[in-house]
Amino acid sequence: MQLKIYHLARLGVTHYDEVSAFVIIAASPGEASRMASDDAGDEGAYTWVDPAVTSCEVIGTALPDAVPGPVVRSFHAG
Hints:
There is one protein chain. By secondary structure, this protein is mainly beta. The chain has 1 helix and 4 strands.
């Protein structure tokens, strides 16, 4: 299966000690959301699996030797 590159972003306001976005290599949008929830900040893990508060879009195709997981995490330290 070809892995995809996903951009996940929170909708709305981001506060201190919260993550606002991720770039993740994963096999599916659901897998990308679960990976993001495993690396959540104070916003809570549920945020990354709720499509009402988080967007998830494919932004590319990963290279054949890519390893699934977060590539970038935008954390707002307080």
